[in-house]
């Protein structure tokens, strides 16, 4: 939530009275965004928590900390340009493996999102039961996939520099 659509989504949700929890890789950039939002909307309820979707350890730590706060979870928004608000998307980066030995783009834009959703789904379900209102998981994506291989993701070469 520290650039583009992430900032605007957090700002508008906060403006509408939503308690926003921003999952951010860069805490300093997150603090600047939070301060900007609060400067323009002093009643905004906005928190930041460190989250690196390319790291499964970071995702697990984030979900543990989020769940320990006993906050409701009504909406989870992902943006894969380049997760509560996750804008961790990266694209067209040089080949690199994540800390978990998964190709970095795939780890950040897919595996991290999947794990985060999986670990927070029960919290969202419990919120829906208590509030009698269904939660939402929103995935925002670009058309970048059109530039990929015609046969789609090469899973057999996902961690291969030639893949």
Write out key terms for the chains shown.
41% helix, five-stranded parallel beta sheet, alpha/beta, 163 residues
Structure description:
The protein is of the alpha/beta class. The protein has a single domain (4-157), classed as NAD(P)-binding Rossmann-like Domain (Rossmann fold, 3-Layer(aba) Sandwich), CATH 3.40.50.720. 41% of the residues lie in helices and 13% in strands. The chain has a five-stranded parallel sheet with strand order 2-1-4-3-5, sandwiched between helices. The longest helix is centred in the C-terminal third of the chain and has 28 residues, at 104-131. The chain is globular. It starts with a helix and ends in a 23-residue tail after the last strand. Pfam families: adh_short. This is Short-chain dehydrogenase TIC 32 chloroplastic-like. InterPro entries: NAD(P)-bd_dom_sf, SDR_fam, TIC32.
Q: Quickly give the CATH architecture.
A: 3-Layer(aba) Sandwich
Percentage of residues in strands: 5-15%
Task: Evaluate the radius of gyration.
Answer: 16 Å
Taken from the alpha-carbon principal axes, the silhouette is: globular
Number of beta-strand segments: 5
CATH class: Alpha Beta
CATH homologous superfamily caption:
NAD(P)-binding Rossmann-like Domain
Strands of the widest sheet, in order across it, are: 2-1-4-3-5
What sequence of helices (H) and strands (E) makes up the elements? HEHEHEEHE
């Amino acid at each position: 939530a520290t650039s583009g659509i992430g900032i605007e989504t957090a700002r508008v949700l906060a403006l509408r009275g939503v308690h926003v929890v921003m999952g951010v890789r860069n805490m300093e950039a997150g603090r600047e965004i939070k301060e900007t939002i609060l400067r323009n909307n002093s009643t905004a309820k906005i928190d930041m928590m460190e989250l690196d979707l390319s790291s499964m350890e970071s995702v697990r730590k984030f979900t543990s900390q989020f769940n320990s706060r006993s906050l409701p979870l009504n909406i989870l928004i992902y943006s894969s340009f380049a997760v509560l608000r996750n804008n961790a998307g990266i694209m067209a980066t040089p080949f690199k493996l994540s800390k978990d030995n998964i190709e970095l783009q795939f780890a950040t834009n897919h595996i991290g999102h999947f794990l985060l959703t999986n670990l927070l789904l029960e919290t969202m379900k419990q919120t829906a039961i208590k509030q009698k209102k269904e939660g939402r998981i929103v995935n925002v994506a670009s058309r970048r996939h059109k530039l990929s291989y015609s046969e789609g993701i090469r899973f057999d070469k996902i961690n291969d520099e030639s893949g």
